[in-house]
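Structure tokens please, single chain.
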Amino acid sequence: MNVRAKKHLGQHFLSDKNICKKIANQYLGHEGCTKVLEIGPGMGALTEFLLQSKELDVHVMEIDRDSVAYLKEHFPGLKNKIYATDFLKTDLIALMGKGSFGVVGNFPYNISSQILFKCIEYRNQIPEIMGMFQKEVAVRVAEKPGSKAYGILSVLLQTYYDIEYCFTVDEHVFNPPPKVKSGVIRCTRNERTTLPCDETFFIQVVKATFNQRRKTIRNGLKVLVDVAPLNHPFFELRAERLAVDDFIELTCYLERKI
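Here you go.
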């Protein structure tokens, strides 16, 4: 039994075992985390190599019924650790408990950014995110200030995680081949567990300034706060010039003044 890749689920199955093994080996078990949740395992190309590690407690989440049936047949060792549910709609604490778990996978391109945003919400439980994304997304997540690729996703992920771009994966190792290259990244939780400012307001500041990224930060912030009576050196810069700590400083300044 083979599973047909479904376009509406963004499925592209890895077919090169060497690449699968190489990706699996990127998981470090940051902060001693050995419990992992693989998102979108499909036919288990990556799962196979994760299960080879005796240290890992592997769980998988798959929304495709055909893939779930395949996994149950070919990976009996997973037993009750196959979850036929939507990651984006799942209460991860209810499913995985209050302890730590890593998130890994060959993530569906059409929801990969949403997966990362959800991981941020559960950052206290997720010390490591490791997996493959469309290369454009992977580069954006890992990018540093000063680049056009640097944006909202870069800042919000880098607020809580250190990002490493591991390697690029070519199109031909997938079935069916995607039209773009892929990139594997590893995100390991940093020491910034809380912010000295309101987190919701911080996110609003980041989004407002990048949504007007061709304008100065002063102009971008006008949709959020009245900046007319305010002044800060960052106001005359564009959002792409600010690092995470700069956005935190800017948010703290705005909180004091409004």
